[in-house]
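Example 538.
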Amino acid sequence: YLNMRKKNNEIKLDVLIVGAGFGGMYMLHKLRELGLEALIVEAGDGVGGTWYWNRYPGARCDVESIEYSYSFSEELQQEWSWSSRYSTQSEILKYANHVADRFDLRKDIKFNQRVRSSVFKEDLNKWYISTSSGDNYLAQYCIMATGTLSSVKEISFNGLDSYKGDWYVTGNWPHQKIDFAGKKVGIIGTGSSAVQAIPVIAKDAKHLTVFQRTANYSIPAKNRKLTVQEVKKVKSNYSSIRDEAKNARAGIASTVYGTKNVFDVSDEERNREFQKKWDYGGTDFNSAFMDIGFDERANDEAANFVRSKIKEIVKDGETAELLSPKTTIACKRLCADTDYFETYNKSNVDLIDINKTPIESLTANGLITSKDQFSFDIIIFATGFDAMTGALTSIDIIGKNGVNLADKWKEGPKSYLGLCIEGFPNMFTITGPGSPSVLGNMMVAIEQHVEWIIDCIKHMNANDKKEIEAELTAENEWMDLVEIIASSTLRDTCNSWYVGANVPGKKRVFMPYAGGYQTYREKCDEIAKTNYEGFKIS
Ligand code: N01
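Predicted structure in complex with 3-acetylpyridine adenine dinucleotide:
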């Protein structure tokens, strides 16, 4: 079918979507419903995005599976049953594949092709998109469903080439099972990925050495199997769960937000609330009180509670101190773990503070720090992502007047609503910088963006319009608002990937919209209702 439509090695489409993760798949499904010719180009050989690439041991969701799932099809939600409170990567990937099969998506997905460039042809109002396999597409709209944590940070340790052992990156994990039994393993990084991987690897490895730069807050996930009765109850109640999620600050229905400030209550009541959240498990610990994310003294109370838990769990005092984070608790994304701190009580696990003794170089057998030599059979880099912008700036995206997106974003990303970028007409970004995306439930954020884009394209077609572009003033005002909101919180108080501080040379800018998902959605709806205020439509 595609070959028939191919002329001059160029395939004409209404819409080209980049990426077959949850964003791209739903986008394709909705575009088909509109009767448009749409196609996904995907670098991997399967669907699932994040869940396709992040196959490291212990990888799981940190939003409850009931809520981290599509809401758009009643049949889909009735026929699919989640096994656990937080599902494994393999179960989520199975779900992604089920969705692809159920909605017959694969026939419009080109796998094993990476989009290399996307150039806006001003004379045609269309995007000319070229891929690694030599295919070219000409499309009215280009939709970037490229994910927020999908561009793995460059592994740039000295001596990597000389290292003779095996090495793996959590964000691009091999498809075959890695056997750690009897192996000496080193892992660099203690973010969410490492926090999930470390306890699992420590079970099998002969020895595991963890190299930590910054200690991280982690709350026990309290993961468990869901009972048949629970699943049944959820299935009969899905519509109200989804409604609640749509109207919640983080797009999660189950989060219970405290209605008091930390110092409104007695020490006993405060501790009781923290303990309740700790026992419930998962990442909504900070919602125990209203001001944890805003007031440093309040924040310190929450942080002290977690630090005291770490000291209770970890038997060796020095290790416990090293694992106790010194940053504010509302700054980085909280981790949700299963036996993370407990793992440091095992005799085969060591923790190295690389602030004190930095890694100097990898060697043929392992690595050297400023103090010691380590030999490893396997080294794991759990060093994170070029978040929110990396997946987009790694493609040559050329807009009007030959402007490259990477150049436009040198001083930090600019986008209107995290959906459209001035100078780049007819291009949409699903969960782009400037939208809440990573600050809440990605599935809710994805569905909202896809549905907004669909309504926008419908509006364009109904009015016989060919080009839509964000206005510069609207974009600037929006990004100013994103910054103002972030600076009213404690989110910018440490070196997180939210501000790009984890990537050397990246401009420090708080990228997601922190004003709450529900407020954001209302704003997007209002803009659509007022004839797309802030957009030039022609
Ligand atoms: O990445 P990270 P991640 N030398 O950037 C360290 C989502 N996610 O893949 O903090 C030495 O958080 C770095 O140290 P520092 C979730 O949103 C979700 O773990 O920069 N160390 C840090 O310890 C999460 O927030 C789940 O000082 C270096 C670690 O590597 C996001 O993805 C699971 C270094 C990187 O941590 C990213 O998590 C996994 C260097 N050169 C991920 N460079 C769920 O649970 C970096 N580090 C759903």
